[in-house]
Design brief:
single chain; mainly alpha; about 80% helix; about 0% strand
Length: about 120
């Protein structure tokens, strides 16, 4: 229960950062690139929060968790970007709405990979 609550708090915080960076950057670059910029900044918020709050009882070393979480986050971002482009270019949704749906879509994958691999718990 505790992990789920912290995961939601940290994930929501990272999503807000991602959206804020996207909104600030999007007038100056393609939406796909602004999405990547948002991901890059939000990654730091997400890793720090998940390492020290969501999965504080992880049985992995810091650098091991960082490498694993980077792989997890990149997989989540790949799913996010694919959905974002499909919604933005394919369905012509507004960029902010496409980003919202893409973030929600990728969050379940990120939780599962984080919980059972990146921040694996001691048994």
């Amino acid at each position: 229960m505790r992990t789920g609550v912290w995961f939601l708090v940290v994930g929501a915080s990272a999503a807000v950062v991602h959206i804020a960076v996207f909104m600030l950057a999007s007038p100056f670059m393609w939406p796909e690139v602004a999405n990547a910029a948002g991901f890059g900044v939000a990654f730091m918020v997400s890793f720090t929060g998940h390492r020290f709050l969501s999965f504080s009882d992880a049985d992995t070393r810091f650098w091991q968790s960082l490498r694993r979480f980077a792989a997890t986050a990149l997989a989540g971002f790949a799913a996010n970007e694919l959905m974002f482009v499909a919604l933005l270019r394919g369905l012509n949704l507004p960029d902010w709405l496409a980003l919202f749906f893409a973030l929600v879509f990728a969050s379940a994958q990120t939780f599962l990979l984080s919980r059972f691999w990146a921040f694996r718990r001691a048994r």
